[in-house]
Amino acid sequence: METTIIIDSLNRNFKGKSPSEKLRYFLDVYQGKIGLSSSFGAEDQVLTDMVLKIDNTTRIFTLDTGRLHPETYDVMDATNLKYNKKIEVYFPDTLSIQELYKTQGINGHYESIEKRKNCCSVRKIEPLQRALKGLDVWITGLRSNQSVTRAEMPFVEYDNNFKVIKVNPLIDWTENDVWNYIKENNVPYNKLHDQGFPSIGCAPCTRAVKDGEDVRSGRWWWEHPEHKECGLHKK
């Protein structure tokens, strides 16, 4: 109950504030207990730049699912070099991957939503649980207009799945806001964005989209829009 009251208050008090102002508050209050998760997409790169300009000791981590695009590793390296910081990398459990391949094959995720979610659970959910261990606050790059599953997400919420406060500083930003910041601040970005990939995940589950298509339409394109979450952010 107390957590809910605090979160409601934060959402009211920070309405209209800039992402940097929001970040500065949380990085100060939760110092040492806060971390940014990055998939090296455009939004996460913006937040990496903002966070490290405020406090370059802040934890930033990523999940290497084992099936990422080569371009994602390129921007990971460019980010490490630009900011002189090694992003923490969490991998799936080896035995769990072996069991996944044994039970549903390499590309079983195409066969059903259940199998796709099994793959996401092994490659993303379990590693994220390890990454968030010991943290009180989780910073994400979610934006409300990315998909129908994110339209109602607030700036601050409590994530019951991972038992942390989740902060979404860019929730009200547009795609133009993101790219203007990247250009103005010379932020490294994934070159797949230049090839029609607005949202980038694992290589087998991400493709380019056509002009006018929803920004998340290239993720798990064989599924209905309301199912297009891996479990990291879907309540």
Provide structural commentary.
The chain is α/β, with parallel strands linked by helices and 235 residues long. The chain has a single domain (2-194), classed as HUPs (Rossmann fold). It has helices spanning 2-13, 19-29, 42-54, 70-83, 94-104, 113-132, 175-184, and strands spanning 34-37, 59-63, 88-90, 137-139, 156-159, 164-167. It has a 6-stranded mixed beta sheet. β1, α3 (42-54) and β2 (59-63) form a beta-alpha-beta unit. It is globular and about 50 Å long. The two termini are 18 Å apart.
Offer a few descriptive terms.
235 residues, alpha/beta, Rossmann fold, six-stranded mixed beta sheet
Outline:
By secondary structure, the chain is of the alpha/beta class. 39% of the residues lie in helices and 10% in strands.
What is the chain-wise order of helices and strands? HHEHEHEHHEEEH
What is the overall silhouette?
globular
By CATH reckoning, the class would read Alpha Beta
Compute the number of strand runs: 6
Q: Report strand order across the widest sheet.
A: 3-2-1-4-6-5
| Poorly predicted runs | none
* Average of the residue pLDDT scores: 91
CATH fold descriptor: Rossmann fold
Fold blueprint:
Layout: H1 2-13, H2 19-29, E1 34-37, H3 42-54, E2 59-63, H4 70-83, E3 88-90, H5 94-104, H6 113-132, E4 137-139, E5 156-159, E6 164-167, H7 175-184
Parallel strand pairs: 1-2, 1-4, 2-3, 4-6
Antiparallel strand pairs: 5-6
